[in-house]
């Protein structure tokens, strides 16, 4: 039996092509997905990586051989695949490795209505089937093969997004968009068509070898070109998408990055205006500003662990209208509880265009505290170092400790969260406080213990 533990992760399939997986395995994944979902039809899409069309087609063949009709939507962003899954009511498969380097590829899977598939919701079962079939192939299915057809949903995706955010009263905006040679270059022109936007495109050529920079805006070095272009052109805002364009980052008119927590708070306020009294999900490393703004606008904030599966579970459980993470994933009830950076971007553009001030001024009300950003430390023993930090702060006057996700220590003036990476020997630290000096003090105290 094959061992796929290196490529089947908690929420998706991901690995180096062809070293760790290839089209023959993709075909088996398609057959296994068909069997586990029990669906009569599915939808499949892919990003611009060189290996994506072949892997996607192989997956479709595997599913069709099991009698499942397959709708191929071709090149798409991940949130475009979620749209197709929701709109068509079909389970879906998206071939992408998001922001990973070019030699990687992967599959993000969902059930009908964009409901996530993870280890506990079918992915472990799919892995077991593929491992069992790896040597001899999938058993032949009874009945005839399914049909494979093509369908373009880009225009419908764009129309749906524009129906959720009204930009008709917006002043004209100059908007620089860095697509990083990823799928934003495919979706942005259609979504922005007809809006009061003077678009300045950067790296819109689809190229899965990422010739200009990694399509990972979470790393500050990948925002440098966007920041320079915003300043050079006098733009009102800059937007950066990751490789599969499900995450969106913003920089203001000065080229300064806007905190994803501030974006979460801004969008939450706008969603609460549409859905008064609604619940908003935020993970435990988003800013204090988020629950404060939610309460100020009459909503109910709910705190969760980090990770899209936890956010989506809580959204479904609570009927939440919106969810945000500090990694720039934004989830909407109006979008099948799935994450879409494009919809968050439209909200920011509508808020900016609906008033006369610059973006830096607009987001100030949502960005109220000083923060460290995420600081990673390589450690030999994650549990030992985390326990040492916990021991140091237990009994601290006025401090509350919780272990919802790693260790969070909260006082009246500051908080920090220390979490272990699931994939690397790292501890991740986030600190927030009422002023920068306190952030620096708490950061240095915790790191001295972690790195001892």
From TrEMBL:
GO terms for biological process: carbohydrate metabolic process. CDD domains: PMM_PGM. Keywords: Isomerase, Magnesium, Metal-binding, Phosphoprotein. Residues 374-447 form the Alpha-D-phosphohexomutase C-terminal domain. One of its GO terms (molecular function) is phosphomannomutase activity. Its EC number is 5.4.2.8. The keyword Phosphoprotein applies. Pfam families: PGM_PMM_I, PGM_PMM_II, PGM_PMM_III, PGM_PMM_IV. Its cofactor is Mg(2+). Residues 6-131, 156-255, 263-369 form the Alpha-D-phosphohexomutase alpha/beta/alpha domain. Belongs to the phosphohexose mutase family. This is Phosphomannomutase. It comes from Streptomyces netropsis.
């Amino acid at each position: 039996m094959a061992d796929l533990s290196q490529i089947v992760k908690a929420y998706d399939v991901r690995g180096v092509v062809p070293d760790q997986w290839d089209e023959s395995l993709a075909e088996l994944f398609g057959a296994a997905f068909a069997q586990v979902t029990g669906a009569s039809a599915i939808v499949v899409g892919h990003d611009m990586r060189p290996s994506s069309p072949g892997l996607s087609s192989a997956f479709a063949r595997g599913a069709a051989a099991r009698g499942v009709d397959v709708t191929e939507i071709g090149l798409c962003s991940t949130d475009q695949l979620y749209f197709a899954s929701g709109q068509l009511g079909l389970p879906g498969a998206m071939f992408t490795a998001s922001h990973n380097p070019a030699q990687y590829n992967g599959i993000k899977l969902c059930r009908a209505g964009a409901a996530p598939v993870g280890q506990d919701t079918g992915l472990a079962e799919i892995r077991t089937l593929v491992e069992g079939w790896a040597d001899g192939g999938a058993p032949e299915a009874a009945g005839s093969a399914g049909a494979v057809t093509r369908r373009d949903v880009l225009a419908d995706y764009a129309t749906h997004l524009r129906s959720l955010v009204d930009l008709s009263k917006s002043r004209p905006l100059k908007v620089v968009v860095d697509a990083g040679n990823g799928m934003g270059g495919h979706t942005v022109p259609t979504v922005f068509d007809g809006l009061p936007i003077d678009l300045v495109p950067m790296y819109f050529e689809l190229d899965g070898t990422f010739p200009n920079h990694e399509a990972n805006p979470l790393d500050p070095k990948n925002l440098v070109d966007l920041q320079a272009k915003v300043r050079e052109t006098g733009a009102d805002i800059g937007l950066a998408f990751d490789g599969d364009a499900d995450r969106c980052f913003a920089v203001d008119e000065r080229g300064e990055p806007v905190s994803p927590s501030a974006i979460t708070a801004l969008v939450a306020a706008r969603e609460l205006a549409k859905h008064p009294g609604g619940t908003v999900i935020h993970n435990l490393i988003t800013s204090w500003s988020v629950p404060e703004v939610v309460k100020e606008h009459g909503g109910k904030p709910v705190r969760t662990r980090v990770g899209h599966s936890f956010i989506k579970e809580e959204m479904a459980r609570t009927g939440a209208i919106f969810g945000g993470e500090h990694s720039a994933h934004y989830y909407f009830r109006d979008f099948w509880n799935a994450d879409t950076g494009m919809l968050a971007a439209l909200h920011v553009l509508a808020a900016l265009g609906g008033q006369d001030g610059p973006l830096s001024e607009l987001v100030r009300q949502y960005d109220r505290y000083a923060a460290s950003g995420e600081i990673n430390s390589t450690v030999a023993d994650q549990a030992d170092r985390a326990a040492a930090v916990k021991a140091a702060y237990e009994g601290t006057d006025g401090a509350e400790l919780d272990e919802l996700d790693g260790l969070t220590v909260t006082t009246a003036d500051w908080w920090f969260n220390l979490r272990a990476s699931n994939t690397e020997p790292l501890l991740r630290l986030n600190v927030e406080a009422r002023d920068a000096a306190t952030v620096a003090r708490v950061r240095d105290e915790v790191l001295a213990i972690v790195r001892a």
